[in-house]
Amino acid sequence: MKLPxxxxxxxxxxxxxxALLSATGAHAQTALDDIMKSKVLKVAVQTDSAxxxxxxxxxxxxxxxxxxxxxxxxxxxxxxELVPVVSASRIPALQTRKADLVIATLGKNPDREKVIxxxxxxxxxxxxxxxxxxxxxxxxxxxxxxxxxVTRGAMEDQELGKVAPSGVDTKRFEDNNATISAxxxxxxxxxxxxxxxxxxxxxxxxxxxxxxxxxxxESPNFIGVAKGEDKLKAKVNEIVAEAKKSGELxxxxxxxxxxxxxxxxx
Length: 266
What we know:
Elements: H1 5-27, H2 31-38, E1 40-46, E2 48-49, E3 53-55, E4 61-62, H3 64-76, E5 79-85, H4 90-95, E6 101-106, H5 110-113, E7 116-123, E8 126-132, E9 147-151, H6 155-163, E10 169-173, H7 176-184, E11 190-194, H8 195-204, E12 210-218, E13 221-226, H9 230-246, H10 248-257
């Protein structure tokens, strides 16, 4: 049958689109096979988010996320290639296949689930009260009569307001840097911060001898996997489940966050 030129062009376009879709379908589900074949696992990590990912004194990335990436690589029997990213480039790194996994304090939400898949949670991320090791604080009631610095309008400010007793002297500052400065200089006795901000503070100021005290809110981290790579996601979930059962997740969390991973969501 002879097709008119316009219809012929449309038909050829249809064939081209079909071929493209077929190629895309064929590419799906190959990530795990490609990793095992190349013997290299590419993991996107952040290096500005202590204690999860940051640069050590030897200028090499270290942190909980880096340890987790190396743990997964070891279980797969492959080398790990770290791909440095910033917050905004974490998901694009997966979508453009620059990375096989994203292990970079990535939280799960409905918008992100539309474009990538997630493993089970591997580590806690939380907002908490931090303070000196030599001052015992077991409950929020123990903060009565003490000063706590917090960034105005931040999640920590909101959560602290829900649980702090009336006797707490809450001092609000305009940004995290000002809040941290107030704690470092002794203007406040305690500080309420997100885990990564607090981790960075403690890393840079070891003389403070500060530690995690009280939990305000949990926001666990998940491993990002490219959409449709179910075989790789299943393998990562298997490794995470094994690490949870063996206590390795608790060990990593204690090492970097000063507290066990606890009961993380699947």
